[in-house]
TrEMBL record, chain B:
SUPFAM superfamilies, sorted: Putative modulator of DNA gyrase, PmbA/TldD (SSF111283)
GO biological process: proteolysis
Domain Metalloprotease TldD/E N-terminal: 25-89
Name of protein: TldD protein
A Pfam family matched in the record: PmbA_TldD_1st
Species name: Filimonas zeae
Residues annotated as domain Metalloprotease TldD/E C-terminal: 222-438
Family membership noted in the UniProt record: Belongs to the peptidase U62 family.
Classification via InterPro entries: Metalloprtase-TldD/E_C (IPR045569), Metalloprtase-TldD/E_N (IPR002510), TldD/PmbA_N (IPR035068), TldD/PmbA_sf (IPR036059)
Lineage of origin: Bacteria, Pseudomonadati, Bacteroidota, Chitinophagia, Chitinophagales
Top-rank taxon: Bacteria
UniProt-recorded Gene Ontology molecular function terms: metallopeptidase activity
Amino acid sequence: MTGMGLGATLLPKMPAFGKEVPLDSPWTTIDPAIKKQMADIALNQATSKGATYADVRIGRYLNQYVVTRENKVQNITNTESYGIGIRVIANGSWGFAATDKTDADGIAKATALAVEIAKENARLLKEPVILAPQKGYGEVQWKAPIEKNAFEVPIKEKVDLLLSVNDAAMKGGANYVNSILFLVNEQKYFASTDGSYIDQDIHRIWPTFTITKIDEATGKFETRNALSAPMGMGYEYLNARPTDKIKSVTTLYKQRYDMLEDARNGAAEVQQKMKAKSVEAGKYDLVLDPSHLWLTIHESVGHPTELDRVLGYEANFAGTSFLTLDKWQSKNFNFGSKLVNIMADKTQPGSLGAVGYDDEGVATREWPLIKDGILTNYQTIRDQAHILGLDSSQGCCYADNWSSVQFQRMPNVSLQPGAGNQSANDLIKNVEKGIYIIGDSSYSIDQQRYNFQFSGQLYFEIKEGKIAGMLKDVAYQSNTQEFWNSCAAVAGKEDYRLGGSFFDGKGQPSQSSAVSHGASTARFNGVNVINTARKI
Amino acid sequence: MAILTKEQAQTLLKKVLSYSKADECEVGLNGSEGGNIRYARNAVSTAGDISNLTLSVSATFGKKTGTATINEFSDAALERVVRRAEELAQLAPENPEYVPLLGPQTYKESITWVPATAAITPDTRAEAVAKSIKVAKEANLQSAGYIENTSSFTAMANSKGLFAYNKDTDVVFSITTRNEAGTGSGYAARGYNDISKLDTHSATKISASKANGSAGARAIEPGKYTVILEPVAGAYMLENMFRGLDARSADEGRSFMSKPGGGNRLGEQLMDEKVNLYSDPFNAELPSNTWSRDGFPLERTSWIDKGVVKNLAYNRYWAQQKNVQPVPFPSNMIMTGGDASLEELIKSTEKGILISRLWYIRMVDPQSLLLTGLTRDGTFYIENGQIKFPIKNMRFNESPVIMLNNVEALGKPERTISIESYRSYLIPPMKIRDFTFTSLSDAI
C-alpha cells in the first residue's frame, strides 16, 4: 500500500526521517575503508558467535525538505540518520539488531544481540532458511548517474523556486498553495560473509505542490496537485526542456519538469474544476495518462506479484495475493489482454528503484512479469528464490533505514509501450463515451488485489472522439483481471513516462520504499465509474 | 542506554541550554529501545531489536530559527551543535508565523510507563508468539502475526525555563489466521502500555473463530445496510476524522469542518447526539503523553459533545490570529458509549452486517470526508438478532461524519488499535444505519 498521500506530505511539520543536520553542512560521504573496518567487526563477531551467514548495512540517510505556503517558507530541514544494521542466520533462523552506537563495542554488542535473537527464535522455525547462492563481488561501488547533486544546490535557489511557483499560482487565482521540494540521498554500504563490500550512492528528488481554490459562500473547494513525478535523479529534473514536454489538454512531463509552468496551468485548471460537471455514474471507456496509471499498476500489478505476499508472509498486514502459484505454474493465466506486457526492473535510468545491487548484495536486473497478457513471473529475494526453482535472487531486497531489516520490496514495475506509435490523442479519437484521467489521487485495493477504486487530478469527458469539457466527482472501480483484460490500446514509446511513490508502505514495522512505474497512455473499455459527491 | 531518567534528561538539557547565545533556544531529547517478531505460515520470519537516542537544538534570533541535531554527547559536541543551530538561524529566512517560546509549565506525572513492559527480552516475545502459533496449529489454521514492544522517552527544555518529560511503554500484537484452502480469514489486534494485559492465546482464539466462521461466504447485493462496526474497524474509520479536528484548515475553507459562508463549525450540531469524543492523557485504560509538541500541558478536552463540535485545535499562531486561547492537538482519543456488549448489539439487530475489520481506507473527498475502503477478515450477515452466515467482502464509500449522524446504538468502549497507524483508541462497537457499500470483492 502506498502509505502517505500527497496531503500528508504537505503538512508543515513533516515526520522526521532521522535527526536533523545543519542546513549549511556540505554534502559529504564516508570513506569506504572506514566502513569496511566497521563491517568486518560485525562479520567476525557474528561468525565467532555461531552465525552461519551475516550481512551488515552501514547507512547514512540524508533528507532535505523545503516546505512553503503562499509567500512563506514554513520549514527547511536537513535530516541525517546514521547507524548500522546486522542480520544473521544462526541455528537456521534470521536475527537482526541495529544500533546508532557505531564504535567497535556498539557494533559487537548489536551483533551478539542479533545472534541471540536468531537462536531464541529458532525454536519457532518449521524449516531452516535456504539462501539462493550469491557470489561475493569484492570491493565495488555504484553511483546514481545524476547530473547535478541537489544537496549541493544552495537553499536560497530552492526557496526562490518554490516561492516563484507559489506566486504564479496565487497570481493565477488560487486561494492557497502549498509546495514542497523533497530530496533524498541514501549512502549505503553492504558487506556479507559471501565476500561482498558494496558502496552505493543513491539520489532522489520530488518537487510537488497543491493548489486550492475556495468558494467561501458555498463552502466548496477544489485542489489540483502537481503533475511531477518523484524521480531517481538530481536537481537536473527541474531543468525544464521543451523536448520533455507533451502538450495535451494540459502540459505533461517526461524526464524533466517545468514546475513554474505546471503551477500556472494548475491555477487555471483548479478554477475549471470548481465549475466542472459532476459525473454521471455508469460505464465509460477510460483513457489513462501515465501520471495516473502508474498508481493503478503499482497496486494491481506490483503488489500481487510480490512473492512474499503470494506465500502468506504479508497476510497479517498488507495481505496475500490472488496470483497464487498454481496460476503461474499453469503458464496460461490470463492476467490481461494481449497488449499487456509488464516488466520488472531495478535498472531503469532516472527511476526510483534503480540501484547497482540490492540490500542483500545481489546485482540488479530486468525480467518480465506479464508477457502478452500471461502471468510469467514474480518478485523474489534470496530466501525465496528456491520456491520458484530459481538459482539466484531477482535482487528485490530493500530496507528503508539502517535500523530496519531488509525484506522483499517491489522493483520498478512498468507497462511496456504499444508496438505502434500512437499518441494519447490517437487513443482519444477512437473513444465514443469515455473519460480521460490525468494525475493520481485517491486509491484503495483489497488485501488480495482484486477490487480497486482510483481517482485522479483532472477528468475530461470524451464524447465521440473529442474532449467535451471537464468532469468532477469521478472514481472508477474494477477487478484487476477484468480491468487489465479490458486494455484495448497502449500508446507508443514516445509517450512513455515514469510515475512513482516515495512512500510505498509494507511490512511490520512498516517500512517505506520508493518505486517507479513506467507507462504510456492506455485505454480500458467499459469501466465502472461512480459519483463521489456527498453532502454533510 | 537510550532511555534517560527525568533527572538525567534535565541535567543534560540544562547543560545544552547553557551554551546558547540566541534570543530563544529550545532543546529536545528522544530515545527509544524495542524489539519485534514477525511470523507467518506458523513460523517466525523476521525479528529485530532497535535502539536510538537523538538530541535536537533550535536556536532563534528575532523570527529566524535554525535547527541542528546530533547523536554525540561529549561536552564539545553539545557546544558544537548549539553553535551550528545559531549559525543556521542567522542564515534562515524570517518566519512571519514564529511565536515566542512558552515559559515554564506544570505537568502532572504521566501514567504511561509500565516497568514490566520495559523489561521485555527476546524470549518474552518468542514465548508470546509460541502461544499464538500453538492455537493456530490446533485449529488447523495458518497464522501470520506481529508483536512489537517499545520503551521510549521524550524530553524538552527551553531558555525560558520550560522542562517537560514523558516516558512510555507500549506493546502491540496483531494476528491473522487463515484456513488451508484460503476460504476463511480472521484477525485480532491488541495494544497496551502494560504487557501483563496482553494475552496472545485468547486473541488468537478470537482470530481463529473468525477464520473458521468466515469460510463459505455468500455474496449479497451492495447497497445501504445497517452495520455493526467492531472497535478495531470503527477506530480505523474515525482516525481519519480525528486528524481533521484543526481550526486553521477549517477557517481557511478547506476542511469538512469549514462552514459555508466562512469560519468553522465550532458549536454546530454535526453528528447524532449519542456521539461524545474527548481526549484525556490520564485515562487509566488509555494513558498518553501529558504535553503537546510545543510544550502545552494536556488535560481532558471535549471535542464532540452530544454531537456538537466543542473544540478544534488551534496552534499558538492561529490562536493569536483569531484572538482565542490555543488548543493543543490531543495525545489520545476516547469515544463514549453505553453498556451493551457486541453480542447485545447483534441481538438487537433485525437485519444487518457485522464488520470485524476494515482495510485500506483512503480519502476520496476531503470536503465531505468521504472515505473508501473494504471489509476484511470476517463479515457476517445478521438476521433477527443472530449471525446467519458469512458474506463476501465489500467496498464502501462512506463519510465518518455521515456515519456518526446515523448512529443507532453504541456499545461498551474497548481499547483497540488502528490497523494502519498502530495508535491506540478507546472506541465502542457502533451500530450504524445506511452504511454505503458500492461493490463486491473476491478477496478473502
